Amino acid sequence: MRGHPAALAPAWGALVISLEHRFYGLSIPAGGLEMAQLRFLSSRLALADVVSAHLALSRLFNISSSSPWICFGGSYAGSLAAWARLKIVLHSLGQKCLSFSRAETVAQLRSTEPQLSGVGDRQWLYQTCTEFGFYVTCENPRCPFSQLPALPSQLDLCEQVFGLSALSVAQAVAQTNSYYGGQTPGANKVLFVNGDTDPWHVLSVTQALGSSESTLLIRTGSHCLDMAPERPSDSPSLRLGRQNIFQQLQTWLKLAKESQIKGEV
């Protein structure tokens, strides 16, 4: 595993573990991607997998139950990391234009064959239709990008591929926000990191909700930029942001150690 989180680990002699989300990569079940199988694909079950992995890896590596765990993630995985603190807090811490065919896209998304070399388009579409939405549009007349991926066209995919209406998607998103708390989750020991040029930052927590739910907004920062390996070309705001992340981790680990010492007295 590469990236800034892994680069931080040696400072505390930490073990870095990367978990693969169910139904993605090599973790596609034997039944493939049929609807009967996709009902077992959800963020809630992914969090249950985190608990199972925590217990199994603790036994495998003989990790003390008092050792702190810190969850990292970017984008959807970042949401899972924050939700883990909320729901399972006791267990964790200029080229040529490409040819694009809507019909071909729908046909590919309808395919239930496991795509072990793919990026999980069918699986991710299913989760956006049944949990998140997360659709990015560019409908403002001043938008410099294509206005074709409007919200109705993206919701149409849910109908065409899975038979799910726009109303059912809206209801699913509302249910997810109710379950996790939306932009006021009420978790603790969570740092929400965003870049102000990331279109998804408006869906994240950008205003601190208290001392245990702090935020960090990186100027000119793009999607998951803070997770990338350090480079000489990194902006001052990114470098400062990473320093703040390091200091926050140091504070949490110090508190965990102090709590452990008090428990032993």
UniProtKB/TrEMBL annotation:
<dbReference type="InterPro" id="IPR008758">
    <property type="entry name" value="Peptidase_S28"/>
</dbReference>
<dbReference type="Pfam" id="PF05577">
    <property type="entry name" value="Peptidase_S28"/>
</dbReference>
<keyword id="KW-0325">Glycoprotein</keyword>
<dbReference type="GO" id="GO:0006508">
    <property type="term" value="P:proteolysis"/>
</dbReference>
<dbReference type="GO" id="GO:0070008">
    <property type="term" value="F:serine-type exopeptidase activity"/>
</dbReference>
<keyword id="KW-0732">Signal</keyword>
<keyword id="KW-0378">Hydrolase</keyword>
<comment type="similarity">
    <text>Belongs to the peptidase S28 family.</text>
</comment>
<protein>
    <submittedName>
        <fullName>PRSS16 isoform 8</fullName>
    </submittedName>
</protein>
<keyword id="KW-0645">Protease</keyword>
<dbReference type="InterPro" id="IPR029058">
    <property type="entry name" value="AB_hydrolase_fold"/>
</dbReference>
